[in-house]
Give the backbone structure.
Amino acid sequence: MIDETFAHFRSCGNGEHECQVYWLSHQERPLDLIEVSHPKHWASRYGLAIEDKWISHFWSDIANRKMSVRFQVHTHPEQAFHSATDDAFPLMFHAGFLSLVIPDFALGPVRFDNAYLTEIQPDGSWQQVRISERISEHE
């Protein structure tokens, strides 16, 4: 999944635009990540927006397949951090939802050096968590 994610970022973002994917799991096995979903979106160097029609179809599709979104993963042009926009507009707002940011438009090595992972807390705030506690780089 990691190789597939970086491939999406590199072809879609082309080193010039942000890009985003979602990592999915079955509802019965939420910790087993099994699929990468690349949404249709508009993007610039400093942001992106998911197409409304795509997101509506996406919710219906994953519900029918009994899937869940565990992570949103996206790129930033330079340093990885969770911006105020990232905080305010995640795909989901429930506690435990994870957001991973990959620096340098994912043009570096295919691993999580200098990446940033944060998780929504029960009070709605975001808290940085260790990547190694949530992701195996062999996914």
Observations:
- Residues 2-134 form a domain with the Cytidine Deaminase; domain 2 fold (CATH 3.40.140.10).
- The chain has one domain: 2-134.
- The longest helix spans residues 52-64.
